[in-house]
From TrEMBL:
Organism ancestry: Bacteria, Pseudomonadati, Bacteroidota, Flavobacteriia, Flavobacteriales
Every HTH lysR-type domain range: 1-58
Superkingdom classification of source: Bacteria
Keyword Transcription part of the UniProt annotation: yes
One cellular component term from this protein's GO annotations in UniProt: protein-DNA complex
Protein name: DNA-binding transcriptional regulator, LysR family
Provenance organism: Flavobacterium saccharophilum
Record GO terms (molecular function): DNA binding; DNA-binding transcription factor activity
InterPro entries: LysR_HTH_N (IPR000847), LysR_subst-bd (IPR005119), WH-like_DNA-bd_sf (IPR036388), WH_DNA-bd_sf (IPR036390)
Keywords on record: DNA-binding, Transcription, Transcription regulation
Membrane-spanning intervals of the chain: none
């Protein structure tokens, strides 16, 4: 059985007239009749009742017509999706991000992309910078959002924005009003990112403390920025977080003091594979680069 047999069958089923069906198919009537007979022989079922006056579908023919129409609808859907996959506007798109990136930005990105690429299945992963770089090199993700420079011949990196730093503390436990009082914090305990999880970021935090004249007493570590802020809120220490976090935190129990005197920033970058020139990747990067911060 071939697709042409099914197309010929549907034409006759719609017209219920072999002459009209053959005209519609641009073939002569004898070959059309022969194709229908071959189909019936293969199915071992009569699909049409024929006489000199009219052509009618048998009960088997009515069932077959319904199923064949459904089959062609599926084939159309498959063809459309296959074409879109070939055009890089369907399939799966995987985005990795670090925990210190405000989540509403990611949500806005996904909403925008879903409008542009409705056939795409988007997946989000919260992944450390080092693991993102490895995953992108292995093509396990399509777009990464990281902090720190990238040294990989396989990766294209674009600066998204430069982020400053802010001290975060529990207002009821720490009495501090300005950046000038930061050196007083040398006696306090700190909550930091784990060194193995984000080595570059960890080193920057140590540099910040050194600028204000002390070495931090790190008693708690976490791999998630939101967990660090929660630990601070619970009174387990103070921390230094990206100012991006401070700008988007409205908790009245927590205070932030931006460190403006020190000339240290962290680069938040967008990373993609150098071999990736797909429409969806370009659209995602363009959206983020043009995002009003």
């Amino acid at each position: 059985m071939e697709l042409r047999h099914l197309k010929y069958f549907l034409a006759v089923a719609e017209e219920l007239n072999f002459t009209k069906a053959s005209e519609k198919l641009f073939i002569s009537q004898p070959p059309l009749s022969r194709q229908i007979m071959e189909l019936e022989e293969e199915l071992q079922a009569r699909l049409f009742n024929r006489n000199n006056k009219k052509v009618e579908l048998t009960e088997a023919g009515k069932y077959f017509e319904k199923e064949v129409k459904s089959l062609f609808q599926d084939l159309e859907r498959i063809s459309v999706k296959t074409k879109k996959i070939a055009e890089n506007v369907s399939g799966e798109f995987r985005i990795a991000y670090i925990s210190s990136i405000y989540s509403s930005v990611i949500s806005d990105l996904i909403k925008q992309l879903k409008e542009q690429f409705p056939y795409v299945n988007f997946k989000l992963f919260e992944v450390s910078t080092t693991k993102q770089i490895l995953a992108l090199e292995q093509r396990k993700i399509d777009l990464g959002i990281i902090r720190s420079p990238v040294k990989s011949p396989k990766i294209k990196s674009q600066l998204w924005f430069k982020d400053g730093f802010s001290v975060v503390y529990n207002k009821s436990l720490i009495q501090i009003k300005s950046e000038e009082e930061i050196p007083k914090l040398k006696e306090e305990t700190f909550v930091f990112f784990n060194k193995d999880y984000a080595p570059h970021y960890h080193e920057v935090l140590l540099e910040l403390c050194a600028f204000y004249g002390f070495e931090p007493k790190v008693v708690h570590e976490s791999n998630n920025i939101n967990s660090i802020v929660q630990l601070v809120k619970n009174g387990l220490g103070i921390s230094i977080v990206p100012s991006n976090i401070a700008k988007n935190n409205q908790d009245p129990e927590i205070g932030f003091i931006e460190l403006k005197k020190v000339n240290l920033f962290t680069d938040v970058s967008l990373i993609t594979s150098k071999e990736d020139d797909s429409k969806i990747t370009k659209s995602a990067v363009d959206f983020l680069l043009n995002f009003k911060r």
